[in-house]
Write a structure and sequence with these properties.
133 residues, single chain, mainly alpha, 5 helices, 74% helix
Length: 133
């Protein structure tokens, strides 16, 4: 077996798929870090860009975890994900004139699911890190 196959945490992920998808996600993160969507108000465009960055960063973190990358660098990525979700909430709040706009609308299944995945991943990464330390 090769190095990638030995370290991956899920046996069905291939190195080729990992390389392809991580490139796609990284490209999208870079795009939405440096550009805004074409339509909408300034606040709306900034909220959408932050949401796209957050969701792509989260998907990349899950992919990297699945591929068996070390836990410590993955933990630091959580800060970027949370910052992007907070930025989304800030600009979405400005767009809808609400000072308390949440990063996740927990009444929406997609948002509820993402919030629970993020919380679960926080616990998992701390547990994995402490177990190996």
């Amino acid at each position: 077996m090769d190095e990638f196959s030995n370290r991956r945490r899920q046996r069905f992920i291939s190195e080729q798929y990992f390389e392809w998808l991580s490139g796609v996600l990284t490209g999208s993160i870079d795009t939405w870090s440096n550009n805004l969507p074409a339509n909408g108000t300034e606040d709306s465009k900034r909220a959408i860009a932050a949401s796209l960055r957050a969701n792509n960063r989260f998907a990349l973190l899950l992919l990297r975890y699945t591929a068996g990358e070390p836990i410590a660098p993955l933990r630091s990525e959580l800060d970027h994900i949370v910052a992007d979700f907070e930025e989304y909430a800030k600009f979405q709040g400005r767009e809808f004139e609400s000072t308390n706009w949440p990063p996740f609308l927990l009444g929406e299944l997609k948002d509820y699911e993402r919030a629970m995945q993020l919380i679960g991943l926080c616990y998992l990464l701390v547990w994995e890190f402490e177990r190996k330390a």
